[in-house]
Design brief:
By secondary structure, the protein is of the alpha/beta class. The chain is built from eight helices and 22 strands. The chain has two domains: about 170 residues, FAD/NAD(P)-binding domain; about 140 residues, 3-Layer(bba) Sandwich (FAD/NAD(P)-binding domain), CATH 3.50.50.60. InterPro entries: FAD/NAD-bd_sf, Sulphide_quinone_reductase.
């Protein structure tokens, strides 16, 4: 039996584990982490890599060092790190399934993220795998390298960018890469020969009204044509055609470049499990992050049922709340810290500018530096240069608390 079992080794799990150890409530040797991934990726870096903020990937030596580390290296050496996936949840017996056996826990923290399903869009996977097909995405490392090459070699034509239905990682990511590509094409002299179109399912460009209004103006100023209530349903890489659905109508659009954000959802191991809701997400109290039925189960990050945007910032914001509340329960008390849905979505706009969108539950702005619905060069350099270094150095050690920086939040 382990005192704390952590399923998944993503941003939330890594941050939580570091802070839990620093709290002194649990020894590193009493913790087990299960994740089969050999590398942990700084996924916000995918957009920067694909969008040219790190230069031409073919001229970068060791591109992975910018966005990846060995997963094991990000956890305390005394933590029991097992490079295997969790295959089942058995909350009534306080066990998880791993590689045909069962592992017992006193407390379980689930942080296994979202699952990406390229095959939900016929033709998409084949197009992404074909190096000669002008289709890319920022949602996987090898594909973001391909996207960088496509953007840099683009000679003009019809450039299409898409967004899936919610949920998906980072609500602004599909338009970030559009603005960055636009910036590259301005520099390479092909922008005047390019038509940019952005096809999205919702009726506005971003989920928070105050930011949406400004982003719609920015898209218009940059000549990016936004098509609302359009969902990508098919890609034909032999004809370079994308099929979209709007209501009951279908339309086919030719492309010379296509960037897609693939459909995403709860991991299969969670779908239909006893710890999940009907949508497949771990059924937790959105404030305490404690399971609504099983008092010794918790969740963090994208796999939770919390109605917040699924970002690294949200997971980092959840971590100190979860550590505090778990510590209270270990001491025989009730959890009293509250996560209010804080998340952040930094949207690169090109030209060394960025809009730092910060908000909480119900889409309410929750800004750190005052009014942030205007482009900022300071925020650009903060996100591009500073945060990637913080991510791999301070987060694993449990000494970074997101918007609170190195200052640990205080809960009553």
């Amino acid at each position: 039996m382990y005192r704390v079992v952590i399923a998944g080794a993503g941003t939330g799990s890594m941050t939580f584990c570091g802070q839990l150890i620093r709290s002194g409530k649990v020894k590193p040797s009493e913790i087990a982490v299960f994740d089969p991934a050999p590398y942990h990726y700084y996924q916000p870096g995918f957009t920067m890599l694909a969008g040219g903020l790190m230069g031409d990937v073919d001229r970068l030596s060791h591109q992975m060092k910018y966005v990846a580390r060995e997963t094991r290296s990000l956890f305390h050496p005394d933590v029991n790190f097992i490079s295997k996936p969790v295959t089942g949840f058995f909350p009534n017996s306080n066990k998880i399934g791993v590689d045909g056996s069962e592992i017992s826990y006193e407390h379980l923290v689930v942080g296994i993220g979202l699952s990406i399903d390229y095959n939900k869009i016929p033709g998409l996977y084949e197009a992404l795998e074909d190096e000669n097909s002008p289709v890319g995405t920022i949602y996987q490392y090898k594909y973001c390298l391909k996207t960088n090459r496509l953007v840099n070699k683009f000679k003009g034509g019809q450039a299409i960018f898409t967004q899936p239905n919610q949920p998906f990682k980072c609500g602004g990511a599909p338009q970030k890469i559009m603005y960055l590509a636009n910036s590259v094409w301005n520099k390479t002299g092909v922008r005047d020969k390019t038509d940019i179109h952005f096809y999205i399912p919702p009726a506005q460009i971003f989920g928070v009204q105050t930011y949406a209004q400004e982003l719609e103006k920015i898209a218009k100023e940059k000549g990016c044509n936004v098509h609302y209530q359009h969902l990508l349903t098919k890609v034909d890489p032999t004809r370079n055609e994308a099929t979209f659905k709007k209501g009951t109508e279908e339309m086919i659009v030719k492309y010379d470049f296509l960037h897609t954000a693939p459909p995403q959802g709860a991991p299969k191991v969670l779908q239909g499990s006893p710890i999940s809701n009907e949508a497949g997400y771990v059924d937790v109290n959105p404030n305490t992050l404690r399971h609504n039925k099983y008092g010794n189960i918790w969740a963090i990050g994208d796999c939770t049922s919390c109605p917040t945007s699924k970002t690294a910032a949200a997971a980092i914001g959840e971590a100190p709340v979860l550590v505090h509340n778990l510590g209270k329960v270990l001491d025989g008390a009730e959890p009293n810290a509250k996560y209010e849905g804080y998340t952040s979505c930094p949207i690169f706009l090109g030209d060394n500018k960025l809009m730092l969108c910060e908000f909480k539950y119900q889409g309410q702005p929750d800004e750190t530096f005052g009014n942030q619905n205007t482009p900022s060069s300071l925020a650009y350099y903060l996100v591009k240069t500073f945060l990637p270094r913080v991510y791999f150095t301070l987060l694993p050690k449990g000494v970074w608390y997101g918007r609170n920086s190195i200052f640990k939040p205080k809960f009553e």
